[in-house]
Automatic annotation (TrEMBL):
It holds the Pfam family DegT_DnrJ_EryC1. GO terms for molecular function: pyridoxal phosphate binding; transaminase activity. This is DegT/DnrJ/EryC1/StrS aminotransferase. GO terms for biological process: polysaccharide biosynthetic process. The lineage of its organism: Bacteria, Bacillati, Actinomycetota, Actinomycetes, Kitasatosporales.
Length: 225
């Protein structure tokens, strides 16, 4: 059952608010709107890119009926804290998950992620955390040096390394959901994040090329604090 159907089944609809992240996953906000409710955006934890429970708490109003937590890049949201908040406030808490990969594939991603963790310089590597499956290996390219994230991505691609910006525009900046809301961690993540490849098919030589291409630019950057 989809998110909109789950919300409707729980009686969430017109006049209700549902707290969701703005960092990617526009389909979650669309599902809330389809159910007839209003999506309200809360900020993310800068380490996990998932909803920050404290930001969710701050976004609650008397009309809040539910929270939809989204697991991001292979890291789970702090669902225990969000469920505890839901119980205290009488809110429905739903999870929007990511597709599961086979264990062997996850193990190989973790191996490649560990390789990059040990070798990358000048970018902030992801915080591993318990259970990280590295669906995407997302680094931060700090904006206080040169080049910035977009220039960094272009330079890395010119060396034959595939990379992608995981969230180009936060949902609260999209025309259908534009809101005047302060989401500093969401904005910063949208400006700084870059996903590097850790596919199970990558060879050691290819992983070395990824690290070398990034590190060739690392001296131009100040590590993100």
């Amino acid at each position: 059952m989809g998110t909109a159907a789950l919300l409707r089944a729980a009686g969430v609809g017109l006049g209700d608010e549902v707290v969701v992240p703005a960092f990617g996953n526009v389909e979650v906000a669309e599902a809330v709107a389809t159910a007839g409710a209003l999506p309200v955006f809360a900020d993310i934890d800068p380490a996990t890119y998932c909803l920050d429970p404290a930001a969710v708490d701050a976004a609650l109003t008397p009309r809040t009926a539910a929270v939809v937590a989204v697991h991001r890049f292979g890291l789970p949201a702090d669902i225990g804290t969000l469920h505890a908040l839901g119980r205290r406030q009488g809110l429905l808490v739903l999870e929007h998950g990511e597709s599961e990969a086979p264990y062997d594939e996850i193990a190989q991603r973790r191996e490649r992620a560990a390789f990059l963790d040990a070798r990358l310089r000048g970018v902030r590597t992801p915080e591993g955390g318990v259970g990280h499956t590295y669906q995407q290996y997302v680094v931060r390219v700090p904006g206080n040096g040169r080049p910035d994230r977009d220039a960094f991505a272009r330079a890395v691609r010119s060396k034959g390394v595939e990379c992608r910006v995981p969230v180009k525009t936060p949902v609260h900046r999209l025309p259908d959901f534009r809101r005047c809301v302060s989401l500093p961690e969401t904005e910063r993540a949208a400006d700084e994040t870059l996903a590097l490849p850790v596919d199970a098919s990558l060879t050691k030589r290819e992983m070395q090329r990824i690290a070398a291409a990034c590190n060739a630019l690392g001296g131009l950057l100040q590590p993100a604090g």
